[in-house]
Structures
1.
Amino acid sequence: MKKHQPTILVVNDDGITAPGIKVLIETMQQLGRVVVVAPDSPQSGMGHAITIGKPLRLDTVNLYNGVEMYKCSGTPVDCVKLAVNRVFKGAKPDLCVSGINHGLNHSINVLYSGTMSAAVEGAIEGIPAIGFSLDDYTEEANFAPSAAYIKQIAQQVLKNGLPQGTLLNVNFPKTTDIKGIKICRQARGKWAEEFNERMDPYKRPYYWLTGEFQLNDQGEDTDVWALEHHYVSVVPVQFDMTAHHAISLLNGWKFESKI
Amino acid sequence: MKKHQPTILVVNDDGITAPGIKVLIETMQQLGRVVVVAPDSPQSGMGHAITIGKPLRLDTVNLYNGVEMYKCSGTPVDCVKLAVNRVFKGAKPDLCVSGINHGLNHSINVLYSGTMSAAVEGAIEGIPAIGFSLDDYTEEANFAPSAAYIKQIAQQVLKNGLPQGTLLNVNFPKTTDIKGIKICRQARGKWAEEFNERMDPYKRPYYWLTGEFQLNDQGEDTDVWALEHHYVSVVPVQFDMTAHHAISLLNGWKFESKI
């Protein structure tokens, strides 16, 4: 009997020519049939943005021998939507992987990250989904040490699936001596912005967004802790954003029942 | 003793000239000092996008008598970041309200919505935050019936605060006969995309994102149910996206501890 060959959708937010997606494609080719739909330009920080005010382009491209690839003019989430609707035409892939992102997406960054939002969109579509990111922002970032872990994690997800409404956020530390994999929760923290103010040649100010991550969490069960201790962090993520624990408190508030 | 006058940051995603933000400004003026920082152009569907590849503009504008207003060239989340850092300069406002959005943001739309993402960013900054949206997509949408409810809800939040890490997602039904307020959870559902394919004058295809909302939830405790039954839906939202219930399951997966 012929074994079922899984179909794997590969997306990212750094764009289709990024080195991180190349490593992800090569790793997924060991597990099944790969289809790539990725942005034609960098889309970092696009979060869960979709394109509604202008039309989208979706064109085939031939970068790596024999790999079915499409570049899209939209956001990472647009890529997943176009993949599901126009490339797979409703025949869902068995797995959606996003990345490998050039830079970390731990903690609160799950919200800002195009890489993670593409994976979230895959999960919303009912596809088991994983986002991968590496703690290295340099041009010569080495994505190779992550590959063996990516393969293991993807194999587990292909074998076991994921609980309904969840996906995985996987981050890799910057080290050649990875200690192993840790299942974590999202650390509490936020970016402290410091807008860099400059003057244009017409003496009008403009601002560059910069900032520093502030960790407000001493827990040893967080993704930030795991990464600092050279572990691969795996956070199960859900897209039900309801704060269920706050419902009873709000039910105690007194509103005029009808105005 | 003089009563403390709260400071209220007003943002939106439909842009600073939208009719919905005008109603929100007027309502908030009854409760405190209003400062508006809103996008200079429509930013619907921008989700939690931030601008990192290009600089931002932030300029004062005088639309409504005596109201401190700024227009920003970025996304709704950029507006909140610039407000906190450049307008308030660290002195946090007492409340952040976003909207009133021209169209619903129930259920999964909390992820795609610029209106809600601005409120989420306010909450990340530690500011009690509320997003408001109206089920009316027409040009002549009537935001006025929502105003009395907005005032009540904002007053409660100013009085009681909100549990740490949470904010409110408030949606208004399209009716002149609102039945009251219901505290809800986010309904399960998703958009079923139908990309509209067209040909440009050069015979190359392009795609418009369209779609229909698919409700996969029969619960009577959801925001969709409340709106369909002419209630104002109030969903407490959190930005910890960890699927805590999935952690123990994932801890049962067998990984090679070190590769």
2.
Amino acid sequence: MAPRTGEHATAGIESLDPVDWSGLRALGHRMVDDMFDHLEHLRDGPVWQPMPDSLRQELQSPLPRKPTPADVVYDDFRRLVQPYATGNLHPRFMGWVHGGGNPVGMLAELLAGGLNANLGGRDHAPIEVERQVIRWAAEMLGFPADASGVLVTGTSVANLIGVLVARSASLGPSVRQIGVDGARLVAYTSAVAHGCLPRAMEMAGLGRAALRMIECDRNGRMRLDMLAQRVAQDRASGLRPFLVVGTAGTVDIGAVDDLAAIADLAVSERLWFHVDGAFGAIAALAPGLRPLLTGIERADSVAFDFHKWAQVPYDAGCIVVRDATQHLETFGAEATYLKREDRGLAGGGVWPCDLGPDLSRGFRALKVWMTLSVYGADRIGAIAQQTCDLAAALAQRVDREPALQRLAPVALNIVCFRFVASDGDLDRLNADLVADLQESGIAAPSTTMVNGVLGIRAAIVNHRTNHADLAIMVDAVLEAGRIRAAKQKKPPVIHRGQVYREASRLGDAGTRGPFPAPGAGTLAAVPP
Amino acid sequence: MAPRTGEHATAGIESLDPVDWSGLRALGHRMVDDMFDHLEHLRDGPVWQPMPDSLRQELQSPLPRKPTPADVVYDDFRRLVQPYATGNLHPRFMGWVHGGGNPVGMLAELLAGGLNANLGGRDHAPIEVERQVIRWAAEMLGFPADASGVLVTGTSVANLIGVLVARSASLGPSVRQIGVDGARLVAYTSAVAHGCLPRAMEMAGLGRAALRMIECDRNGRMRLDMLAQRVAQDRASGLRPFLVVGTAGTVDIGAVDDLAAIADLAVSERLWFHVDGAFGAIAALAPGLRPLLTGIERADSVAFDFHKWAQVPYDAGCIVVRDATQHLETFGAEATYLKREDRGLAGGGVWPCDLGPDLSRGFRALKVWMTLSVYGADRIGAIAQQTCDLAAALAQRVDREPALQRLAPVALNIVCFRFVASDGDLDRLNADLVADLQESGIAAPSTTMVNGVLGIRAAIVNHRTNHADLAIMVDAVLEAGRIRAAKQKKPPVIHRGQVYREASRLGDAGTRGPFPAPGAGTLAAVPP
């Protein structure tokens, strides 16, 4: 006999939902206000500040066994975490190639967190949203409408997918069964390609030595003559060339390979043509930049990030593959518990988990969909163009400064230069200058090696950055450089307040006083 | 000559931030209220409903070039996306092993989306939060405090990392340089292990044929005698056994391998011992379940998800590796532009990008940190225990129903059974029943194959599920089964409203009327 329905009813059952929702709801409203306040007044704070060791210690605790009120945990977040974040929201963050995020994307994350959808598979609207985003990506790149694709954390994983699809296309899907033993595959990319490409070769079992890093010209573009020569050599040695990776926007200087020429060579040499367009692919949305990418529409696959130049919050990478069948054959699986039905929740055709390594997948498509829908692709493209215009202006300023030397041409939005009005170890000096600036909170460029010397790299990615921000950054470099050069052993004395007030005069640094963080307001706190 | 600071000032500069923030801020508040309303009244709606084709079509549009007001895009989300999500928030979602999410985790996503931190590396508080979460994970598993680890999308990627660390530990880091050619590595796991393990072997270039799927006993646990025998055979054949993967909670029936015995064998055979604890590892937080995991604390690495049994919103997977050096040696890289400094923003020691395939990484640590901090680990463990208790009660109910047959022992929280009061193709019938239930919106179990027959799988993962939910699900199975059995060609006539009213009488189904979705309120809409 069956028990009567609900015999046990809810006896003893507890969920993680509150009995009274009002407190948590109120906290949610407070968080919205706080985050909007934070975004609205970004300029009033430092770009970045080091986390004090005392707070670092305070964050460390054993696994919490007992509950803590949500507002207390939120206060910890406000005190220990938020003030010491990466800094890439700030208009004077110019380190690496980090996007600035956007408030619509932030709100999309709230919605996605609430829906808690798993986009590994099954038949539901969030998957349709991701499919839509992939179609938009294909359209942006000039790919056919039936191209395949999937969202991932970032281009590192997207490039891994590219390598794996190329591997499968070359060896056939049987590689999944038998592995790469004896395959002797070799791939090609530029000497300044992203470090995740050798890593993808490692993970794929091919080894990084099988990735030929081809010499570049003085503009940081892969030399096609050297590429053709190396392919011929490898074939003569009995190896099996299978893949060439072009770069659209190198991380060091923003160079874009001659993608059309690579496409030609890929056809004639029967190589899979993958493009690492981590940030550069978004140039396709800017009419003034798009010609730089000519040839990308002929690639077999393209990897790129929405969280860099497209300003979608982290993380949101993407791969698009021209031939949907080859993509599916690389990853498609049918486990018993994932069995696809022709109807019901288990329907829906090709699932995202058939297209990459992720099976559990959050709804990162929503922030991409909402960002592109609200701002429109033209505006995202205009922002990309704007950062390039800013970089050109910065390069002009650097070229006019006797104390500075530019280290590379400016292809897109990255300017590499260094302070040279000093004797001694310029690499060390410039590394120190960059750390000085970062720790001052005034600006955060990063360093990189260009042609064997260490440079200051200013990557203008953030949509909030303006000309005054660049001026403040350069002024701070010059000031700190002169002080360091004059007195190597004494701390520099440039005051953050000084630069800050100058920015205020220009009317774009907000109306609050100098940075409030104690001890972080000057470059003087920095050890030499 | 340098231009005067700010010569160009802000001329022509536009950002994605609004000039007037009040509209977007108000929309944010509306979203908070809407999402809290949604969570508070989950029971009033269907578990899942198919997305009408008309709406699917409406979602499809060319890449939007021009902007659209944020509230209009949000209305589209409310109309096209939210009603047709996966359903795993709902207490009667029992399909696959999906967590139910939680409101604190939802709010954490808002904050993380606002901060927009990239947790690939550098020195900032979000990385400290992730390190803290990893220490908590190590503590939960009984690992040493200096164990290494990293958050990833999910266990599929975490298992890939496990395979790659094991590969590197076996062959040495030189595998990164030269690949797996000639290595002849072979690995072992149970015949009912997760499909992402063969996929990890594929991606790693070893091939899925090099993963021996070892026969299980009748409880779904890997047979250790067969394992030992197969290792010996492989060694005799000149192959190189390097890895054994134990499973803590199989997806089909929730079985847990004898991890202590596998640990012993791994030591004696010098194999890397990895545990796929996708959902089961969280049992370590429940005193009543923890003994099932005995031996997990001796593993070399453990992969698991916070978004399943720990109810953190998707996606939040984790891997913990006992030997931090071996973990680092598998992935650690030093590209020029990622150069670590001893101070400044580029400081901070080992970065998460040194520990897995992701370089761009969102702040998924925050939702884990806040969920564990607010609820406390004991309560998460109590929820896991509760779902097991519910599964035990469900098994009893199934055993008492003559029309139902249980297909597997209940090790944790998964009950597999099927409707048997019918002649004919029971596999087809039960697949239809599951789709009927899913499309009715009443409950969403899934199907799986157990010992060669198709079963109804009810995975009790959601913290909101209670006894009445199970009763409603079983009643609906019985009703739909009887109707289908009686009239194979005629649609069943059970009304969602009928079951719904029964639930309402029990006082745990909210106070709103029957499901509002037109045409989705009965099982009758389902084609046979």
